[in-house]
Design goal:
The chain is an alpha/beta fold. It has helices at 3-9, 72-84, 115-118, 136-139, 141-150, 157-163; strands spanning 13-22, 28-38, 62-66, 100-104, 120-124, 131-135, 166-168. The protein folds into 2 domains: 1-51, no CATH class; 57-188, Ribosomal protein L13 (Ribosomal Protein L13p, Chain: A, Alpha-Beta Complex), CATH 3.90.1180.10. β1 (13-22) and β2 form a beta hairpin. α2 (72-84) packs across α5 (141-150). The radius of gyration is 23 Å and the shape is globular. It starts with a helix and ends in a 20-residue tail after the last strand.
């Protein structure tokens, strides 16, 4: 039994990429064969059908991200991708496949340039004279980070549900130790 047949018999998700010259159906000259396996026995992927992640198949994890010394916007893009689920191979745009993210040391983030003192954030009530303006230093780093991530998510019901999976703490301690199964100090 070859390696590819063993992979197929284990009901894993598998993708086979071949490159080379093919002479006929029975005799072929293949230079390289790469097989990528994602071990997940709950889902079976057929390459001739579209894959949609079902709600029962979602397995969100908890991740801790240390924000000390990281640039706010760059970290916000990586966290928004983790919340939305774009970092997993089972990403489906219309379903919430993301993880829970805990940000610690939020007060030690970096804003480049003079943004902390000069950047303005506007809110508008819809009424005449209802425009309110606040500087970034008045909002503080946790609220700035939450606004940055929220504006990178879809503007829909799903986006409002996704942002609830983000927890931001100013210090190094957080009350979510019971949920932790993935810990990392930097996001890749």
């Amino acid at each position: 039994m070859s390696n590819i047949e063993q992979i197929k018999s284990n009901r894993n998700i598998w993708i086979e990429i071949t490159s080379g010259l093919t002479q006929s159906c029975f005799s072929s000259t293949i230079k390289h064969t790469f097989v990528f396996c994602l071990v997940n026995k709950d889902m079976h992927m057929d390459m001739n059908r579209a894959f949609f992640l079902k709600k029962e198949q979602q397995k969100p994890r908890w991740k801790v991200v240390d924000a000390r010394g990281q640039v706010l916007g760059r970290l916000a893009t990586r966290v928004a991708d983790m919340l939305h689920g774009k970092h997993v191979p089972t990403y489906t745009p219309h379903s919430d496949a993301g993880d829970y993210v805990i940000i610690i040391n939020a007060n030690e983030m970096i804003l480049s340039g003079n943004k902390f003192t000069h950047k303005e954030y506007h809110t508008y009530s819809g009424w005449m004279g209802g425009l309110k303006t606040k500087k970034a230093h008045e909002l503080g780093y946790p609220r700035l980070f939450e606004l940055a991530v929220e504006r990178m998510l879809p503007k829909s019901k799903m986006g409002r549900a996704i942002i609830k999976k983000l927890r931001i703490y100013e210090g190094a301690e957080h009350p979510h130790t019971a949920q932790m199964n993935t810990v990392g100090n930097k996001v890749d």
